[in-house]
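User: Please fill in residues for this 245-position structure.
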């Protein structure tokens, strides 16, 4: 692949945006290749956790602004962004966004689609869109409403301001804030620790914490707890507990 790099280590699939010279600006090739790479990592049984990261000094600077000026953005969203955004949303495996440097515009939207966000302290979060007269897109508005107070999200999106990682944490967008020097080691340890846990329990937990109705939630927990109850990890843990009595 030209714009995406994929690596697999210790149960973790690393999906890396790879246009560092453009701060990982998202062009059509990258978005299509990312969709393809995500599908491969989802289908690979050796991969239990997926990490999204950016090569170079940024996570992503958002949509590549060299896009043709007469492009129909609505059609572009439907054809190029939404397949990836849907795939991220539908993915049963845990998705971690590892964010450093700059995260802007649609790059921010993709980061918000992950289950958790581990963020290096010096990261700058840019809402960007309104500065070029656009609304937030690529699923970003949906996730902002889910994660943040609506008035604070609107205030931020209307201002187009860039905020630091501590403010983003106060907004609810950061799962764990990490010192820059420790960032990659901590991200790796987080992902590999999660990959070593029962995949049935990890994926079940993700499915259960999705938005759903109360009744659907009860039905889902019946399904997942039944499956978890049958796993070797659980059986061994029960035996260990009972043997100590
Ligand atoms: C870039 C980009 C970039 C291309 C840096 N594109 N080259 C929009 C339209 C259509 C449909 C779908 O949805 C969207 C949604 C959006 O994502 S809107 C938001 C788009 N993103 C932005 O407006 C951010 C634009 N970039 C910037 O403001 C700055 O580059 C930031 C603040 C991210 C970083 O600034 P610096 O650290 O000073 O780096 P730089 O500006 O020098 O960038 C380095 C290179 O990357 C440079 O290229 P060059 O060839 O001159 O070295 C930039 O042109 C290029 N680059 N962002 N989005």
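Assistant: Residues filled in for all 245 positions:
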């Amino acid at each position: 692949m030209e714009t995406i790099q994929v690596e697999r280590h210790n149960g973790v699939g690393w999906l890396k945006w790879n246009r560092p010279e453009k701060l990982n600006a998202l062009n059509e090739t990258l978005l299509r290749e990312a969709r393809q790479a995500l599908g491969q990592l989802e289908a690979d049984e050796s991969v239990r956790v997926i990490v999204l990261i950016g090569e170079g000094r940024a996570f992503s600077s958002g949509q590549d602004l060299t896009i043709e000026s007469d492009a129909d953005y609505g059609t572009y969203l439907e054809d190029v962004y939404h397949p990836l955004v849907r795939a991220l949303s539908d993915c049963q495996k845990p998705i971690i966004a590892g964010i450093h440097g700059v995260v802007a515009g649609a790059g921010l939207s993709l980061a918000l689609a992950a289950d958790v966000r581990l963020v290096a302290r010096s990261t700058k979060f840019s809402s960007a869109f309104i500065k070029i007269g656009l609304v937030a897109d690529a699923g970003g508005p949906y996730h902002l409403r889910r994660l943040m107070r609506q008035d604070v999200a609107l205030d931020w999106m209307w201002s187009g301001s860039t905020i630091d990682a501590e403010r983003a944490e106060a907004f609810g967008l950061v799962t764990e804030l990490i010192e820059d020097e420790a960032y990659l080691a901590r991200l790796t340890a987080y992902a590999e620790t999660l990959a070593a846990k029962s995949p049935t329990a990890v994926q079940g937990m993700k499915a259960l914490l999705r938005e759903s109705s109360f009744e659907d939630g009860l039905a889902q927990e019946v399904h997942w707890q039944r499956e978890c109850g049958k796993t070797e990890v659980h059986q061994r843990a029960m035996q260990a507990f009972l043997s100590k009595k």
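For context: The mean pLDDT is 97.
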